[in-house]
Amino acid sequence: MILITGGAGYIGSHVALALLEKGKDVIIFDSLELGHIEIIDILKKYGNLKFVQGNLKNIDDIRGVFLVNKIESVVHFAAYSQVGESVKNPQKYYYNNVYGTLNLLNAMLEFNVNKIVFSSTAATYGEPDYVPIDEKHSQKPINAYGNSKLIVERIMDDYDKAYDLRSVRLRYFNVAGADSKARIGEWHEPETHLIPNILKADSKKSFKMFGDDYETPDGTCVRDYINVEDLAQAHIMALEYLNNGGRTDYFNLGTGMGDSVKEVFKACEETLERKIPVEICPRRAGDPAKLIADNKKAKEILNWQPKNNLLYSIKTANEWEKKLVRIKSGIIL
Ligand code: UFG
Fold first, then answer.
1. Rounded distance, CA 254 to CA 306, Å?
2. What is the CATH number of the domain that holds 57?
3. Residue 71 is part of which domain span?
4. Cα–Cα distance for residue pair 77/6, rounded to 1 Å
5. Is residue 230 assigned to a domain?
6. Is residue 125 flagged as an active site residue?
7. pLDDT tens across 69-107, in order?
8. Model confidence over 167-186: pLDDT tens digits?
9. What are the pLDDT digits (tens) for 236-282?
10. Could you give the percent of the chain with pLDDT greater than 90?
11. Catalytic residue among 10, 93, 125, 145
C-alpha cells in the first residue's frame, strides 16, 4: 500500500486519485483539520482507498497505521502552508511541519519503510538571485513556512546518509487547476490563492490585486503556474524512480514559463466570458516579484513533462468551483 499523508487536501487528493486510477492500493492519513471528508468520499469511488483520521503530532496515530498495514512507500503532504500565517505563528509551523514529519520518518524507520516523496516548495529558495531558478540556487527562505520545509529537506538528507531512508523532495512552484473531470479540486478555507480568488469574485466581493508597481513588464508579480494533474504525475514518476533504486534527490516542478497576475486575471475573464470586479490593493508582504522554475532536472531524471497550460488550469479550476458551490450547499457529492 502507498501511504499518503494529507491526502484529503488539494495536491494530496490529486495524487491519490492518480494512484487509484493506476490500480494502486492507497491509504490516506489526514487530520481533517484542513482536508475534507467529502474529498475522501469522492476518492473512494475510484479504487481501493482506506482512510485513517489522525495527526502526525501524535506518534501513536501514525505508528498505528504502519502497525496494521503493509506500507511500501510514503507520499507526504500533511503540513500547514500559509506563508503569512507562518510569519505570525512560527511555533505552529515548526511543531506541525517539522515535528510532525519527524514522527512520520521515525515510524518509517521503525517499520522498515525506506522510500518517501516529500512535498517541498519554491519558498525554500527565498527571494531569488536569478530566474529561472534551478536546483543549485541557494536556499534562503524568508518565512517560517519555507524554513520548515527546508529543515525537513535537510533532515531527509541526514536520514538518507545514516539510515538509507531514500527521499525525493519536490519543490513546487504555483500549483493551479483541478481534476479534468471536476471530481476534485482546490478547497481552502479561507482561500488565499490567486486563481480561485479571481474565480470567486463577484459584485459583492471584488478580486483584490496585491500590487501593480513591481519591477515586471506590467507591474504585477510573475509566477510559474503548474497544473495539478501534471504535478500529480510527477509524484507517480518520483515513486517509480525510488522503486527502481533511484537515490535521494530534489527537483523543481514548474513549467519554466511565467505569467503575471494581470495576465492570469485576463485569462480568467476570458474563461468566464464576463468582467470580474477588481480592486488594486497595496503589495502583500513577502511576495517576490518573479518566480519561475528551471525544470530541466525533473525532465531529465524523472522523465517528467508538464502537458497542461495555464488556460486549461483556469478552465478546470472554474468547473471545480461550480461543483464546490454545490458540494458546500449539500446538493451533491
Ligand atoms: N494574489 C493577488 N490576490 C489574491 C491572491 C494572490 O493579487 O487574492 C497575487 C499574489 O500577491 C502573488 C500571486 O497572486 O503575486 C500569487 O499568489 P498565490 O497566493 O496564489 O501564490 P504564492 O506565489 O504566494 O504562493 C505559492 C504557494 C506557497 C508557496 C509559494 C512559493 O501557494 O505555498 O508559492 O513562493 F510558498
1. 8
2. 3.40.50.720
3. 2-177+225-254
4. 5
5. yes
6. no
7. 999 999 999 999 999 999 999 999 999 999 999 999 999
8. 999 999 999 999 999 999 99
9. 999 999 999 999 999 999 999 999 999 999 999 999 999 999 999 99
10. 98
11. 145
Indicate which atom in ligand 1 lies nearest the CA of residue 173.
Answer: 34
The verdict on residue 41 lying in a domain is yes
Q: Please give the Cα distance from 308 to 183 (Å, whole number).
A: 17
Give the Å distance between the CA of 83 and the centre of ligand 1.
9
Q: Does residue 35 fall inside a structural domain? A: yes
How far does residue 22's CA lie from ligand 1's centre (Å)?
32
Ligand 1 within 6 A of CB of 291: yes
User: Does the Cβ of 223 fall within 6 Å of ligand 1?
Assistant: yes
Task: Specify the number of domains making up the chain.
Answer: 1
Residue 237's nearest CA partner among 320, 331, 307, 313 is: 307
pLDDT at 278: 98
Residue nearest to atom 27 of ligand 1 (CA): 174
Mention every residue, 6+ apart, whose C-beta is less than 8 A from residue 4. Answer: 12, 15, 16, 19, 26, 27, 28, 29, 74, 75, 77
